[in-house]
From TrEMBL:
Protein name, UniProt field: Isocitrate dehydrogenase [NADP]
Source superkingdom: Bacteria
Gene3D superfamilies xrefs: Isopropylmalate Dehydrogenase
Domain Isopropylmalate dehydrogenase-like: start-end pairs: 11-396
Length: 405
């Protein structure tokens, strides 16, 4: 089938990336998408080389396009470390594209595991996905830090209506370290709104975790904001769907998660979300089996990606001309989320059906025992029985063809 561009359709903004993730991205398009479906795509190559060549203008253009059209699929990208800058001869200081996207698009990142019947989670009672909603703004991530030497004085002062108030005064008697972090109610409320809306869409209960017993004011604001919004706007809709909202202390929440069957949304503060999403990912089968959705309901934006990075170690092997056994499932599910959203906004049933068909083809392939090395290791079979990246993708293609009959 030849590729046609449907200009009347709201496009998908495709954001291409780096290294092994980019190699798989190309294979996925070539074997699993373009032969089967016509999509209106606006393509942006934000590989590290192109970001450097364009002085990062390409990233800005890609972000603007996602803002304009509202649907994005993103391949993993390099955030160059000092060593990587030297290795790749990068001339510019390039910020993390993901941080730029998050800052510009706002919204909330929902990370969820992709489940298969024959990949049993490490926690045997987990039967349904646990979705981590991370409040990806503020706290430790744009905090102020300092070191104080013996006899240095560090104080926190608040000025309000011309009144000065010293909140904290600290005289260091030995080398000490300090952290000042902040957040704001608008951002917390938007986060709560995103979690509750997503919960209704997915018919899943929500838990917010904080440590409001210790941090009565800071974490207290999170707890109160969620409670107030829930009571004012969402309690009736939740009751109608037979789902619930509850605040739990983070330690209690971790313990509950280990005992639970899953099937809920866990709203996490920024740092907790960073840590807990890795814990949940590993428990369900690894980063390669996680989907990551950045959703901003108010701006009608959905940006889908895999949760893993560019898989640099595998790329080095690939560059030597050797076959790798890299798992494309997370990237495929980024595409299916994007295509499904494309179908929804364009009222195009065929795209929605194709997204489900492709996900189904992945399920059939894995569930008949075709594995990449990471899955083989996870389920405890000999890694020598695992497939190469390309053979695994061809096997999924075979499953798609079978579905079409
Ligand atoms: P990574 O790309 O996630 O890979 C870390 C390790 O996890 C791999 O070496 C591999 O383990 C395993 N792995 C991850 N995805 C896999 C897959 N699909 N199939 C099989 N194994 C997989 O993390 P990284 O190597 O630390 O980061 C590399 C680059 O990615 C960095 O430049 C970082 O900035 C970037 N990054 C980008 C994003 C993003 O764009 N969303 C996110 C995170 C990191 P084995 O080597 O043991 O097989
Ligand atoms: Mg993390």
């Amino acid at each position: 089938m030849s590729r046609k561009y449907f200009d009347k359709y709201i496009p998908i903004v495709e954001i291409d990336g780096d290294e092994m993730a980019h190699v798989m991205w190309d294979m996925i398009k070539k074997y699993l998408i373009f032969p089967y479906i016509d999509l209106n795509i606006k393509y942006f190559d934000i590989s590290v080389e192109n970001r450097d060549k364009t002085n990062n203008k390409i990233t800005t253009q890609a972000i603007e396009a996602v803002k304009k059209y509202g649907i994005g699929v993103k391949c993993a990208t390099i955030t160059p470390s000092v060593n990587k800058k030297i290795e790749l001869k990068i001339k510019n200081d390039l910020p993390s594209p993901n941080a730029s996207l998050r800052n510009e698009l706002g919204g909330t990142v929902f990370r969820q595991p992709i489940l298969f019947n024959n990949i049993k989670p490490l926690i045997k009672n987990w039967q349904k996905p646990i979705v981590i909603a991370r409040h990806a703004e503020g706290d430790q991530y744009n905090a102020y830090e300092c070191i104080a030497e013996r006899n240095d004085i560090v104080q926190l002062e608040k000025k309000s209506n011309g009144m000065q108030n010293i909140i904290a005064y600290y005289k260091a008697d030995t080398l000490s370290t300090f952290l000042l972090m902040c957040n704001n109610q608008y951002s917390i409320k938007s986060f709560a709104h995103a979690c509750f809306t997503y919960a209704i869409e997915k018919s899943m209960s929500v838990f917010l975790s904080t440590k409001s017993t210790v941090s009565k004011i800071y974490d207290g604001l999170f707890e109160q904001t969620f409670n107030n919004l829930f009571t004012a706007k969402f309690s009736r809709q939740f009751a109608a769907k037979n789902i619930s909202y509850e605040h739990r202390l983070i330690d209690d929440m971790v313990a509950y998660t280990m005992r639970s069957a899953g099937g809920f949304i866990w709203a996490c503060k920024n740092y907790d979300g960073d840590v807990q999403s890795d814990f949940i990912a590993q428990g369900f089968g690894g980063l390669s089996l996680m989907q990551s959705l950045l959703i901003n309901k108010k701006k009608n934006i959905v940006l889908a990606e895999a949760a893993h990075g560019t898989i640099a170690r595998h790329f080095k092997i690939y560059l030597k001309g050797e076959e790798t056994s890299t798992n494309p499932i997370g990237s495929i599910f980024a595409w299916t989320a994007g295509i499904r959203q494309y179908g929804i906004v364009n009222n195009d049933k065929k795209s929605i059906e194709f997204a489900s068909l492709l996900e189904d083809a992945c399920k059939k392939t894995v569930e008949k025992g075709c594995f990449t090395k990471d899955i083989a290791n996870f389920v405890g079979i000999n890694a020598s029985q695992s497939m190469t990246t390309i053979d695994f993708i061809k096997e999924i293609n075979f499953a798609i063809k079978n579905s079409f009959g």
